[in-house]
Design brief:
It contains ten helices and seven strands. By secondary structure, it is α/β, with parallel strands linked by helices. A seven-stranded mixed sheet has the order 3-2-1-4-5-7-6, with helices on both faces. The structure holds S-adenosylmethionine (SAM). S-adenosylmethionine binds at residues 14, 16-18, 39-40, 42-45, 59-61, 168-169, 185-187, 200-201, 203, 205.
Amino acid sequence: MFSTAVKPKPFVKWAGGKRQIAHILIENMPTHYNKYIEPFIGGGALFFELLPEKAIINDINKELINAYIVIKNSPEELIKSLKKHKNEKEYYYKIRALDPEKLNPIERASRFIFLNKTCFNGLYRENSKGQFNVPFGRYKKPKILDEENIKAVSNFLNSIELQIFNTDYREVIKLAKRGDLVYLDPPYHPSSQTANFTKYTKYDFSEKDQIELAENFKQLDKKGCYVILTNSDTPLIRELYRNYNITPIITNRAINSKAHRRKNTATELVIKNY
Ligand SMILES: C[S@@+](CC[C@H](N)C(=O)[O-])C[C@H]1O[C@@H](n2cnc3c(N)ncnc32)[C@H](O)[C@@H]1O
C-alpha cells in the first residue's frame, strides 16, 4: 500500500475540481472494487483522495496529461525547471506565447503548471485554435513550485499499477471490466447558456455528448461495473439518469465568469448505478 509522509493533492487548480466534495464522493464509493477508472481526470481531486492501488486515468487535455507523465517520470527535472519562473506580467505573456508542441516534455509541463498558478482565476481555457488564452492573474505570491507535493504525487503515481491516457473518454471506458469502478466527471451540462464553464479545450462537450455519455453509463452498468457520475442539476441530466440512484448535493461553484457570482451555491448531482 502507498505510504509517504505527505499526502498528494491536485498539482493544478482545475475548473470543476472536486476537492470540496471529495469526502461526499468517498462516502458514496463501493467498499470493494477492482480497478479505479477516471476518464475525465482533470486535477484528480478524488483520485488523490482515494489513492487507489490500480487505476486508469485519462483526459483529453494534452498539456494536463503531459504534466502527469512528467511528474511521474521526471519530478526532479520538473522541479528544477519550475524554479526558473517569475511571477511577472511580461514574462507571463512570453511564456504563454510559446508553442507547447515545440517544447520538450519537461519544459512543456513546467510552462503548463506556471501558467496555471499565475493566470487569472487559475483556469485552463483554449481558443478555437487550441491556444491557451487566459490573461495574467496579478497574484501577489502564487505558489508556482510546491516541491513537496510534486514529490508526493510522483511517489504515489509510481507506487501503483497505473495507465495514463490522453484520448477521448469513449476509448478509455472500453477498458472497463466487471467489478471495476468508473468515476465520470464530465464538463457540466450548463444550467443556462452562459452560467457555467464547460469549455476546457478546443473540444466542446455538447448536449449531444451528455446524451451519449448517459448511454455509455448504461453500457458500463450492463457490463457489471460500479459507475458513479457527477454533473450539474438540470432537467436534462435528471431525465437521462432517471433509472439510477440520484443524490443532490450543494456546492460552491468555484469558477464563474462573473466575479460577484463566484461564491454562489449550486446543486450538483451524484449519480450511481449501485
Ligand atoms: C469537470 S472536469 C474534471 C474535474 C476533476 N474531477 C477534478 O477534480 O479536477 C472535466 C474534464 O474533462 C475533460 N474532457 C472534456 N472532454 C473530454 C472528452 N471527450 N474525453 C476526455 N476528457 C474530456 C476536460 O479536459 C476536463 O479536464
